[in-house]
Give the backbone structure.
Amino acid sequence: MPGLTLYQDYSREDVHNIFSPHTLFHMGSGTWGLTGIIPIPERNGDFIFMVTYGSSQSGHDFDEPISKEGVIIWQSQPNQKLHFPQIQQFMTHDELNNSIYLFLRTQPSRATTPTLVF
């Protein structure tokens, strides 16, 4: 993807401007300013994941280790189930046809900028 560099810091607004420059951005609201899973417009099956490593939400601690081989074990929200269409789409993801861009925040603070890790 043009404009992205591995291990570079990007704000949510930076990511929005790269992937969807023709839409509005509002920090703290809407798809680009708030959510962790963002479908990329006009690229069916491509997603952006904004993950805060070691985070907690509503009493649920997310345990998402990264293996020595660099594989992240990602957990969806507790209310999402295996049969949900979006979860099925992630499980059957074909990396030859679609991309998932992972932005990882290592500190659970909104002020911390996520870093592109792949």
Observations:
- The longest strand covers residues 47-52.
